[in-house]
Amino acid sequence: MNLQAIRAIYAFEMARTKRTLLQSVVSPVISTSLYFVVFGSAIGARMTQVEHVPYGAFIVPGLMMLTLLTQSISNASFAIYFPRFTGTIYEVLSAPVSPFEIMCGYVGAAATKSVLLGLIILATAALFVPMEVRHPFWMLAFLVLTAVTFSLFGFIIGIWADGFERLQLIPMLIVTPLTFLGGTFYSLDMLPPVWRTVTLFNPVVYLISGFRWSFFGLSDVAVGVSFAMTTGFLLACLLIVSWMFRTGYRLKS
Amino acid sequence: MVSVRHLSKTYASGHSALKNINLEIARGEIFALLGPNGAGKTTLISIICGLVNASAGEVRVAGHHIVTDYRAARACIGLVPQELATESFETVVDAVSFSRGLFGKAANPAYIEQVLKSLSLWEKRDARIMTLSGGMKRRLLIAKALSHEPEVLFLDEPTAGVDVELRRDMWRLVRGLKAQGTTIILTTHYIEEAEEMADRVGVINRGEIILVEEKAALMRKLGQKQLAIELSAPLAAVPEALSSYHLALSGDGLHLTYSYGVDGAVGEPPIARLLADLSAAGIAFDDLRTAQSSLEDIFVSLVRPQS
């Protein structure tokens, strides 16, 4: 195991975050904070509680998940796409580093940034609304699992993309809408039966539901199902990354 | 040090970039791979360094198979790519340290300092890469390739687009590395570069190695010398008495050209006899000038018939 290489890639990526602190950390924290201030006060004034949880607090796990998904994807996809774009990827590919180690470095850094962002958002939210975390271990487990899974997904997008437009395509057109429609701002019980059934086809529902359960003990679907869905997606991403490195897809000719 | 056997590469487009390449490069030598654009030089280097998958054949570096024992093989290799592919926002010292880390080596600030100083980059160690000139970026790529103390250094067109001063600096650096025992493989289409530095020369054209030879032997074998004789009075034709010399007479009848082998061992009569025979034939001359064919002339003569 080339631990030095993993450390080098990880440190390199974390240094990029440090250099772009405003864009990497401050901007998503402010955007998400605006969501729960605006939605929390606008809707929260009319709908004070959802299943005995203050509305302002109810939407926090969903908003954390929104940031976690978009930032994990964007961090990891950019991290691997940019060296491909500039040509500096030659250095990583010609080094004595295995695909697993390359992935650990890039995905580890992207996931670390997302987890930190999630925790900062949680701390910021606690300033505005009363927060409780009923199952802190599971909260952290879902946080880390989701960050790693979607960083892997972002890594795949970064290898697949052949332009900056494609890099943005899936996060903007698929992930963000699915997160908004995945129960970030409401409980599935509030939907008409038909839409509730339709929403259950949205995979993000399971992520938000499990994560919200770790905070309030409330979930739209069974926690075990949420956990299994996330783990399944993680394994699928691992298989795709493994195939990409084995075949050299978009990395080697 | 580097062993290439029956190596072939056919891209998905069907283009056959390398055809059954066989090449042995000894430890500590400077090997220049010459070839026109698109000959397959970069593909060959890219396969050895793990950037391109081979279609057939095998490559070993320091005895390590580049696929089955890729860690050991790649750990021996430093690569300076043809393109100026560098990060932009990182500092020089961070970028070089990153390269060292990738190769599994623990941080060694003293060694990095030594490398940067040898490449005149030490003063710029805290500068962002985007602020460096093209020449400095080229030096940085060399520093990155040397950061893990490689045994084999691949230089893919190292002096493409750099000024004369930097080119000479690089030659000096390469000689220094050779003196330390580093094996150097460089691709170039600057014949001057190969002529200046290489111990051995390989010529590749259309994916095939058409010649591998020690530079000095190649110059002797294929090189030509020419003696240009400026005559005092024009000749209508070369006299019959001098026909054995295969002299070429210029259109104005005032210049004779005599071609002979570099080492004088290819059967032509010696110059002294020619000059004596000229005098005997009553041909006076005002001046003599000799010229030796360069590696470039040899290269062109090798590649042209196949192009």
Molecular structure report:
The complex is a heterodimer of chains A (253) and B (307). Chain A has 253 residues and is mainly α. Chain A has one domain (3-247). Chain A is 77% helix and 2% strand. Chain A contains 11 helices and 2 strands, in the order ααββααααααααα. Chain A has helices spanning 3-19, 21-44, 55-58, 60-86, 89-93, 99-128, 136-160, 164-180, 193-199, 203-216, 223-247, and strands at 49-50, 53-54. A two-stranded antiparallel sheet of chain A has the order 1-2. In chain A, helix 4 (60-86) crosses helix 10 (203-216) and helix 10 (203-216) packs across helix 11 (223-247). The longest helix of chain A has 30 residues, at 99-128. Chain A is globular and about 60 Å long. With 307 residues, chain B is α/β, with parallel strands linked by helices. Chain B folds into 2 domains: 2-219, Rossmann fold, CATH 3.40.50.300; 224-301, Alpha-Beta Plaits (2-Layer Sandwich), CATH 3.30.70. Chain B is built from 10 helices and 14 strands. Chain B has helices spanning 41-49, 70-75, 92-102, 109-118, 134-146, 164-179, 191-197, 215-222, 271-280, 295-303; strands at 2-10, 16-25, 30-34, 56-61, 64-65, 77-80, 152-156, 183-188, 200-205, 208-214, 224-231, 248-249, 255-261, 285-292. In chain B, the strands form 3 sheets. In chain B, strands 6-7-8-3-9-10 form a 6-stranded mixed sheet, with helices on both faces. A 4-stranded antiparallel sheet of chain B has the order 2-1-4-5. Chain B has a 4-stranded antiparallel sheet with strand order 12-13-11-14. In chain B, helix 3 (92-102) packs parallel to helix 5. The radius of gyration of chain B is 25 Å and the shape is elongated. The two termini of chain B are 31 Å apart. The model of chain B has no long low-confidence stretch (mean pLDDT 87). The chains are: A mainly alpha (253), B alpha/beta (307). The A-B interface holds A 2-5, 7-9, 11-12, 15-16, 19, 86-88, 90-98, 248, 252-253 and B 11-12, 49-53, 70-75, 77, 79, 81, 83, 85-90, 94, 97-106, 144.
